[in-house]
DNA sequence: TAAATCGGATCTTAAATGCT
DNA sequence: GCATTTAAGATCCGATTTAC
C-alpha cells in the first residue's frame, strides 16, 4: 500500500520523550540517545528525565520550606513559654492588699480545678504547639486586642457602656462579681469578655439596630470564631463572654451549649462541689481561694440557669444533669460572698429545677392518648408542682426580705412573683398540651380547670408587669431614678433585657387575651385586660430603643384584638349584618405581615405551650376575628 | 536544495464528570 | 467501577523561511 495515497495514513508512534534540540526545533525525535538528528548534526543530545521533573522539584522545594517553618515555629513557642510562664495571674484573683499592692493567687487543691480555669496563665499558646500552621497563630493573636484598640469605639464609649451593662444586664446574666469584674480588671484579662460586656451595654444605650452595635457584634463573632479554631481549652472569661452572647443572640441555644461544654471542660462543676463541701465561714474574712471558688460556682450556676431557661421554654429537656438540690443551693445563701445578684440567680435556678422535674414527669409518664390512670397521674404531678412552687415563693420571699430591704430587694420580690406566675402558666399549659387537647369545646373538666388556672396566672402576671416602682428612694445599686417612679418597675429594666425575656413578655400578654376569649370571659373583663395590654405596650414604647421584633408582635396583635372587638361590638349594636369582605382581606394581609416580621425563633424555636403558632391551626386571623362564636 | 523555523494539529495523560 | 469528557501539556507534521 502506498502511504501517500491512503486517506488515513497511520502516524508513526511518537517518541515518549523528545530531546531538547528536537523539541526546540519542533521536529520528530526518534528517542534514541543520541537521537539520529543530534548524531547527524553532531550536537549534544540532552533529555529531561521524566516530564514530572519540575513538579517533583517544586514538591521537594515546598517540603523543605515546611520543615524550615516548623523549626521556626517551635523555636518561637519555646521563647514565648520562657517569657510567659513566670508571669503572675492578674486582676480577677488579685486581692488588693491594705498596702495597695497585689497578692498572688494561692495554691489550689490539686486535681480540683485546672490552672486553665484561671485567667492570667499562659494557657492558649502551648495548646497551639501541635500541628497548627503559623497563619493560625497569627490570627489568634490578632484578636487579643479589644474593640477600642481595634479602633471601633472610643475609651469613653467603652467605659459608659461597661457601666450600663452593670446597671441592669448583670442581673440577667448573673455570672459576674462586681467587686472583681471591674473595668480595669476585665480589660487586662480578656478582650473577648471586655468586648462582650461593652457590646451589650451599647445595645442597651444605642439600640439593637444601631450601626455601632452591629459592628461590635461582628467583632464578637470574630473573637468566637478564633477561639473555636485555635484554642483547645478556653478560659473562664471566654465561658462568660459566650454566655453573654448566648443571652442576647438569636442562636442562644447553640451558644449556651458551647458555654456549657467549655465550663465542664474547665471543671467548673467541681468548684460547686468543693465550695459546698467546705465548712461555712460566716465571718467577713474570706480567703482568696474561697472567693475564687464562689466566683466559679456562680458562673457555673449562671450558665446552667440560662441553659435551663432555654430548654424549658424551648420545649426540650435540659442537656445536662445539674446534680444539685434546693438544699445545696440554699447553703450558698449563707456564704459571705453572696450578693444581690445571687438572690436572683439562685432563686431562679431553684425554680427552674422544680419546673424541670415537673416537665420530666409530665413528658415521661404521659403518652399522646390519655388513659384514666394517666389522667390522675398528670393531675397529681401538676398539683405536687403547684405546692412546690408555692413553697418556693413563700421561702424566697422570706429570704429576699431578710437579705435586702431596699429598692433592689423590692424589685427582686416583684421578679420572683413574675417568675412564679410564669411557672404556673407554662406548667398548666404544658400538662394541657400533653393531655392531647385540640378543641376547647370537647375539653374535659380537668383540662378546662387547667386552662382557667393558666389564665388566672397569666392575668396576675400581666398585673405584676404593670406594678409601679415603690416610693422608697432609689438605692445606688438600683437603676431606678426619680424619672422611673410611677412607671412599671419590671418593664423599666427592659432596656437591658434579653431577646427571650422580650419573647416571654409578648407571649404572656397575647396568651392572657387568647385564654380570656377561649374561656368566654365577659366582654368587660376582656376589655380591661386589653387596657392593661395597652399599658404594657405604652411602657415598652418608652423603653424600646430601635427595632425590637417582639415589640412589633405585641403591638400588631393587640391592635388586631382591639379591632376585632370593636367590630364585634358594632355588630351587636346592629350596625352590621356580617363581616365586610374587604376588612377580611385587610386582616389576612395583616396576618401575612405578621409572618413576615415575626422572628423565626418565636415561631419555630420557642415552645411556649398554648400560643405557639404551630398549635393554632385556625390561624392568627381567626383568633381575634371570629369573636361571634366565642361570645 | 538542505536545514531551520514555527503554527497548530494531534497525541498523551490525568482529572472531572456521567452513567449503571 | 467503568466510560466519557475535559483540559493541559507534549510531540511533531508540514508550510514556510533561511543559508549556502
Automatic annotation (TrEMBL):
Pfam families on file: Zn_clus (PF00172)
Key words of the record: DNA-binding, Nucleus, Transcription, Transcription regulation
Region called Disordered, residue ranges: 465-485
Location of this chain's protein in the cell: Nucleus
Lineage: Eukaryota, Fungi, Dikarya, Ascomycota, Pezizomycotina
Protein name: Zn(2)-C6 fungal-type domain-containing protein
Main location: nucleus
Organism of origin: Aaosphaeria arxii CBS 175.79
Zn(2)-C6 fungal-type domain span: 18-47
GO cellular component: nucleus
InterPro entries hit by this protein: prtT (IPR051089), Zn2-C6_fun-type_DNA-bd_sf (IPR036864), Zn2Cys6_DnaBD (IPR001138)
Amino acid at each position: 500500500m502506498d502511504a501517500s495515497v491512503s486517506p488515513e495514513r497511520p502516524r508513526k508512534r511518537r517518541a515518549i520523550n523528545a530531546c531538547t534540540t528536537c523539541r526546540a526545533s519542533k521536529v520528530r525525535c526518534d528517542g534514541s540517545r543520541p537521537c539520529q538528528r543530534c548524531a547527524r548534526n553532531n550536537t549534544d543530545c540532552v533529555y529531561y528525565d521524566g516530564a514530572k521533573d519540575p513538579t517533583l522539584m517544586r514538591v521537594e522545594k515546598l517540603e523543605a520550606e515546611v520543615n524550615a517553618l516548623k523549626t521556626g515555629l517551635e523555636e518561637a513557642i519555646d521563647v514565648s513559654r520562657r517569657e510567659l510562664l513566670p508571669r503572675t495571674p492578674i486582676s480577677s484573683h488579685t486581692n488588693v492588699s491594705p498596702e495597695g499592692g497585689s497578692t498572688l493567687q494561692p495554691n489550689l487543691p490539686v486535681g480540683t480545678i485546672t490552672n486553665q480555669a484561671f485567667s492570667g496563665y499562659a494557657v492558649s499558646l502551648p495548646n497551639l504547639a501541635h500541628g497548627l500552621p503559623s497563619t493560625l497563630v497569627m490570627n489568634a493573636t490578632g484578636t487579643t486586642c479589644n474593640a477600642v484598640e481595634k479602633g471601633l469605639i472610643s475609651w469613653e464609649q467603652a467605659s459608659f457602656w461597661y457601666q450600663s451593662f452593670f446597671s441592669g444586664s448583670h442581673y440577667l446574666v448573673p455570672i459576674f462579681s462586681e467587686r472583681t469584674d471591674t473595668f480595669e480588671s476585665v480589660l487586662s484579662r480578656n478582650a473577648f469578655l471586655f468586648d462582650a460586656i461593652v457590646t451589650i451595654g451599647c445595645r442597651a444605650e444605642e439600640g439593637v439596630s444601631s450601626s455601632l452595635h452591629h459592628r461590635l457584634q461582628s467583632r464578637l463573632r470574630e473573637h468566637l470564631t478564633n477561639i473555636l479554631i485555635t484554642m483547645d481549652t478556653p478560659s473562664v472569661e471566654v465561658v462568660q463572654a459566650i454566655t453573654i452572647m448566648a443571652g442576647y443572640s438569636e442562636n442562644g441555644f447553640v451558644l449556651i451549649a458551647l458555654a456549657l461544654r467549655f465550663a465542664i471542660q474547665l471543671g467548673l462543676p467541681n468548684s460547686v462541689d468543693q465550695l459546698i463541701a467546705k465548712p461555712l465561714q460566716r465571718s467577713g474574712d474570706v480567703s482568696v481561694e474561697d472567693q475564687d471558688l464562689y466566683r466559679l460556682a456562680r458562673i457555673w450556676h449562671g450558665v446552667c440557669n440560662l441553659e435551663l431557661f432555654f430548654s424549658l421554654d424551648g420545649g426540650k429537656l435540659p442537656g445536662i444533669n445539674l446534680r444539685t438540690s434546693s438544699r445545696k443551693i440554699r447553703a450558698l445563701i449563707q456564704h459571705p460572698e453572696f450578693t444581690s445578684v445571687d438572690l436572683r440567680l439562685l432563686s431562679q435556678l431553684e425554680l427552674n429545677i422544680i419546673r424541670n422535674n415537673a416537665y420530666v414527669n409530665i413528658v415521661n409518664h404521659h403518652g399522646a392518648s390519655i388513659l384514666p390512670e394517666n389522667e390522675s397521674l398528670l393531675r397529681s404531678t401538676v398539683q405536687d408542682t403547684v405546692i412546690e412552687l408555692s413553697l418556693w415563693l413563700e421561702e424566697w420571699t422570706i429570704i429576699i426580705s431578710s437579705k435586702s430591704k431596699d429598692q433592689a430587694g423590692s424589685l427582686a420580690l416583684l421578679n420572683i412573683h413574675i417568675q412564679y406566675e410564669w411557672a404556673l402558666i407554662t406548667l398548666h399549659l404544658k400538662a394541657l398540651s400533653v393531655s392531647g387537647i385540640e378543641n376547647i369545646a370537647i375539653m374535659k373538666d380537668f383540662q378546662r380547670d387547667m386552662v382557667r388556672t393558666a389564665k388566672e396566672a397569666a392575668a396576675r402576671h400581666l398585673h405584676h408587669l404593670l406594678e409601679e416602682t415603690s416610693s422608697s428612694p432609689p438605692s445606688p445599686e438600683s437603676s431606678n431614678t426619680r424619672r422611673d417612679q410611677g412607671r412599671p418597675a419590671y418593664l423599666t429594666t427592659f432596656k437591658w433585657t434579653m431577646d427571650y425575656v422580650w419573647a416571654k413578655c409578648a407571649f404572656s400578654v397575647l396568651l392572657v387575651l387568647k385564654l380570656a376569649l377561649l374561656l368566654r370571659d365577659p366582654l368587660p373583663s376582656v376589655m380591661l385586660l386589653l387596657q392593661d395590654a395597652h399599658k404594657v405596650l405604652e411602657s415598652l414604647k418608652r423603653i424600646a430603643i430601635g427595632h425590637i421584633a417582639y415589640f412589633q408582635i405585641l403591638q400588631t396583635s393587640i391592635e388586631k384584638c382591639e379591632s376585632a372587638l370593636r367590630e364585634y361590638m358594632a355588630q351587636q349594636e346592629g350596625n352590621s349584618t356580617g363581616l365586610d369582605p374587604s376588612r377580611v382581606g385587610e386582616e389576612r394581609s395583616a396576618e401575612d405581615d405578621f409572618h413576615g416580621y415575626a422572628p423565626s425563633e418565636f415561631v419555630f424555636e420557642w415552645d411556649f405551650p398554648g400560643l405557639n403558632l404551630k398549635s393554632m391551626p385556625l390561624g392568627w386571623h381567626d383568633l381575634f376575628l371570629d369573636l361571634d362564636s366565642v361570645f
